[in-house]
Amino acid sequence: MHIVNRLRARFSRPPLQTLSSLEAYERWVATYPPRAHNPLMEAEQRAMLDLLPSLDGQIVLDLASGTGRYGILAEGDGARQVVEIDNSAAMLRANPLSYRAQATSEALPLKSKSVDVVLCALALGHLPRLEPSMREIARVLKRDGIALISDFHPFLCLNGARRTFTTEGQTYAVEHYPHLYGDYHRAAINVGLRIEQVAEPRLEAQPEVPLVIVFRLRKAD
Ligand SMILES: C[S@@+](CC[C@H](N)C(=O)[O-])C[C@H]1O[C@@H](n2cnc3c(N)ncnc32)[C@H](O)[C@@H]1O
Questions:
Q1: What is the pLDDT of residue 204?
Q2: 3-219 maps to which CATH number?
Q3: Tens digit of pLDDT for each residue in 177-187?
Q4: Residue nearest to atom 25 of ligand 1 (CA)
Q5: Which of 19, 20, 21 to mutate to test the pocket of ligand 1 (most atoms within 8 A of CB)?
Q6: Per-residue model confidence as pLDDT tens digits over 124-164
Q7: Mean pLDDT score of the chain
Q8: How many angstroms separate the alpha carbon of residue 124 from the centre of ligand 1?
């Protein structure tokens, strides 16, 4: 069954227990490898890599890093320093990179204007408000720095899809707040980021519904 229908089908079953992001990743971490491990992540990663600037010699923040998928790619791409930040201690313990810190995206333990590139994948939808995290991304970026932000496409979520995972025979939903393009646009303007490019990849097999939304933003001042 196609991923969109699978996600919809899950939604139409009896209500699932919804976990906070912190609770969810405590339970999910054992089956969350640091690589794209489903078709949605594969489509998302292709779009992210299409929009990625060269990381050679750059200081990269992998924000909401999870187990390190993008940090590992950034190291492989020649980044000078990769910083992994996530608010889940469990995900960070499973992250193989050495420079890690537990913190929320809404209060980053980094100096202003200290980072060349921020990569923030599939995470901001766990937060009800975009702007506090985007303000922190803008603060830590150097002038002309680039941020790539991806998330589940809001159309997918507004069509009834939910973020779920299964562990020990039990399926859970994870808290998620769909943010529309206009929400990103407004937050970007308010914090001094300029949207340079947007990608909304779909699967060939089911082209009518985009799976993810990916933004490339530049620090405006
Ligand atoms: C779907 S996972 C994505 C992990 C990684 N970015 C990737 O794409 O493989 C979402 C991650 O966001 C983290 N997260 C959720 N809310 C966060 C917050 N407020 N601050 C930092 N990390 C957060 C979760 O702990 C989890 O590791």
A1: 82
A2: 3.40.50.150
A3: 999 999 999 99
A4: 88
A5: 21
A6: 999 999 999 999 999 999 999 999 999 999 999 888 889 99
A7: 94
A8: 8
Ligand 1 atom nearest to 22, measured from its CA: 25
Segment 36-47, tens digit of pLDDT: 999 999 999 999
The set of protein residues with a Cβ atom below 6 angstroms from ligand 1 is 21, 25, 64-66, 69, 86-88, 91, 104-105, 121-123, 126-127
Residue type, 30: A
Contact status, residue 144 vs residue 118, Cβ threshold 8 Å: no
Could you state, in order of their start, the residue ranges of all structural domains in the chain? Answer: 3-219
